[in-house]
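seq:
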Amino acid sequence: MDSLREKINEFLNQKEIAVVGASRNPAKYGNIVLKKLQSAGYLVYPVNPNASEVNGHRAYSGLSGLPTSVKAAVVVVPPEISEKIAGQAIAAGFRYIWFQPGAESEAAISSLEAAGIRVIHGTCLLVRVSP
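struct:
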């Protein structure tokens, strides 16, 4: 079994990362995560079905609309939405999903892992990314 450290390193080696739950509100974690990744040099893709753009980036309504080169996503939504996102990630061929604390769902984690997707949960991305 792969260690958490290995999964985190693999995730952070991605150049393009989707942020599911990207918010237009600068005080929300979905916005904070987006800005942190952007300032660290990642190409970020906001996913928010209720916004056309977030922080000057085109927003996508779901994972299926993203460029096919995007294979990693940070999830910052309630657990019941995470379960829907898991299905989208599997269908879109994602390889890495990071659930921010509070976004994880056992059902989502199980279905993603069963599909061979590397899942990170129980740790905050914000403390792992250096600007």
